[in-house]
Amino acid sequence: EKLVIATHNPGKLREISALIEPLGFVCVGAEELRLPEPEEIGNTFADNADLKAREAADLSGFPALADDSGLCVEALHGMPGIFSARWAEDSEGKRDWMRAMEKVWDEVQATEPDAAPAAHFTCVLSLAWPNDGQTEAFEGRVDGTLVWPPRGDKGFGYDPMFVPVGYDQTFGELEPELKHGISHRADAFRKLVSALKP
Ligand code: ITT
């Protein structure tokens, strides 16, 4: 069965495909279908995940799965949160993850200096069927602490500065298979799978 993965982020596409392909779905990315990137006008992860899934399902005619996610730092009252991707953008909209990580670290040290600030990743996965207006959303989370300087090049986004609870290595250093087992995305995915089981 064909499922559109409604993301333009290659890191997410890789992780979602790894989670979902064992279930027998054929995943096709939004870029491959040349779907436009909708403007994320929602105020919550769930609203943004729903709007991305809805648009991809309606435009493609296939069920679509979207992921809205981000890094929430406790000392920053949950920021950057839904603005996680936007914190990486320069004035031309080009993303630079080192710049985003630096901004997070500098803001935390300016607010509440701490060698290991508490943070979590949140992920909302939303599944939409074409043309029937229905979406279903599932939220996952992983807790951890931030480190400086960033370490490792295995993940994407903020992974090099995030150490999940119970580990010493960052998501940038841990093996992808391990991240896929404990991440916010894996947590949301488990909820999605149990809801879809008859
Ligand atoms: P799409 O909307 O096309 O899916 P995006 O990158 O714009 O891609 P978001 O608006 O959801 O997606 O932004 C989420 C950002 O949060 C993302 O760009 C990452 O930097 C960060 N993020 C989410 N999950 C992450 C993870 O597992 N590891 C590291 N950073 C993550």
From TrEMBL:
Q: Which residues form the active site?
A: D68 (proton acceptor)
Primary enzyme class: hydrolase
Binding site residues for Mg(2+):
E39, D68
The record's InterPro entries line, in alphabetical order, gives: dITP/XTP_pyrophosphatase, ITPase-like_fam, RdgB/HAM1
This one is known as dITP/XTP pyrophosphatase
Reaction catalysed by this enzyme: XTP + H2O = XMP + diphosphate + H(+); ITP + H2O = IMP + diphosphate + H(+); dITP + H2O = dIMP + diphosphate + H(+)
Q: How is the cofactor bound?
A: Binds 1 Mg(2+) ion per subunit.
Question: Could you tell me the EC number(s) of this protein?
Answer: 3.6.1.66
Q: Which PANTHER family match?
A: INOSINE TRIPHOSPHATE PYROPHOSPHATASE (PTHR11067:SF9), INOSINE TRIPHOSPHATE PYROPHOSPHATASE/HAM1 PROTEIN (PTHR11067)
Q: Which CDD domains match?
A: HAM1
- Subunit structure as annotated in this protein's UniProt entry: Homodimer.
